[in-house]
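Researcher: For the record, we're logging two predictions in this thread. I'll number them. Prediction 1 follows.
Model: Prediction 1, sequence and structure:
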Amino acid sequence: MLMTRSNPTGLAVDLDVLKLALRIGADADDDRLTQLIRAETARYEAFTGRVLLPTGFRLSLAGWSFPACLPVLPVRTVSSVTYLDPDHAEQTLSASAWYAVEAAPLWSVDLDTQASLPALSDRPWPVRIDFDAGHDDPEASGAGDVPALAQRADDQDAIIHMVGVTYDQGAPLDFDAMRKVFGSRRVIG
């Protein structure tokens, strides 16, 4: 089960860039446009499996089922593997017992074959992997320094297109239209 631990504060597309692309000169709709950027970014991320801004995630597992595929891209860091022990207390698995694997198309976390695995709680989802994923915030200092984390122009163009459709027509692109327009950008399925 994938959960978001932190939400990004920036925008995947700068408001001024969006307004220029959509030929919107006035500031009266800035709040609405900002909301549309956030909403359409979330829809695009769900569709493509890629995260457009730095975001913290937790992947919870039913047990020691490894390798565990991290279902979003790009992964920035894997910070910890924790688990609930038989007394339901959270414990951290030693960093020497696990490692991240960067492989196309998705990253995974695997366990060292020599590691002894502790007993788990009988509560649901006792194993947790905390990681950060997402492209650089275009407004952040150092954005684009790591090419794999740099914002992609085609992603920004897609968000602008989606916001434009919603802004002009009052309804977002449906899933079938997204598949026709952006189908080749999907990471998963």
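Researcher: Logged. Prediction 2.
Model: Prediction 2, sequence and structure:
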Amino acid sequence: MQAWKTYSNAYGRRLMEEISQCTGSERVYDTIFVGGGNPGSLTPEQLASLLRSAQKHGKSREVTIEMNPETFGEHFFPLFSDGLVNRMSMGIQSMDDQLLKRLGRNASRSDNLRAITLANSARKRYGIELNFDLMVCLPGQTLQMAINDIHEVLSLADAHHISLYCLTVEEGTELARAVGMQELAVLDEDGQAEMLKGIWGELSLLGFSHYEVSNFCKHEKFCEHNLRYWNISPFLGLGSSAASTLIGKEGWYHYTQTQDLRQFSSSALFSGYEREDLSLVQSVEEYLMMALRTKWGIEKQLLENRYGLAFDKTFSSLLGTLDSSWYFDTAQNFSLSEIGFLLLDEILLRFVMQIPEPLDRPNPL
């Protein structure tokens, strides 16, 4: 515990200084997202200091903080009462103890019940928006179990946003071992598709709009911060494992923070951020990958203005290879239907193969 306190204090000091230097030009950030890992591992006082620094030139329109159920408590409520945070995203994942154990989660069903109820209390007191993350298509999980999770969460909290993620079995984990030994069965693509269609249909009946492959909301309560990712708008990421997407005179580029928590805590300011410059073709690929995930899809005029690609001229032959039930095509946008969402990887690959290379104009600002 003492070692973690030492690291967290050093981590907070460096992050605070980097935030201060980045906000020194009277910049007001539209959105802020405190997440990745478990921000609840920091104290409310540390988080408040970081958020005040990030908003010292003006309040951000949306400030989201991620919380894990096992570390969330009422001691974090001052973040909401002081207006530093107006949206919370909680990683529930499952309401089943056995599934939580298989996922290697630290939280139990009882932790989830307590945290969801407490989150709803914060919503009632301070008017914050709530999102809950749930995992689906898990080994041993039925469609009805997944639907029951959604209903139970929504019976405890008035959430306007739900994020659903399918399981990715990572090498070297206990879950990967169990799957490899055939102790657990993972759904095949057809099985996943059937479960997802059932879950998506249930969310629609509950009044949720499917606005991105993994995200659903009521009353257009989109996650504005994530919209910046999907729209390929510039964003700045600070801290261990953070990522940024920025634009300069030569085009788009990424920064990735490669240091782990201990390295970040003990290293010089702005060290460990590695830059990757994107070619115009890479920028187009990234835009297509993100845009096709959303219900708005590809904005044809943006594609031409930003990347010099006329959609109808470039992709007209491709559309002839797609089933008409997979997409919607208008003069302004090309987007995927829910059937298309299920085939996203295949459709994206076809689009990428159609990009002319090299493109003959620089990446415009």
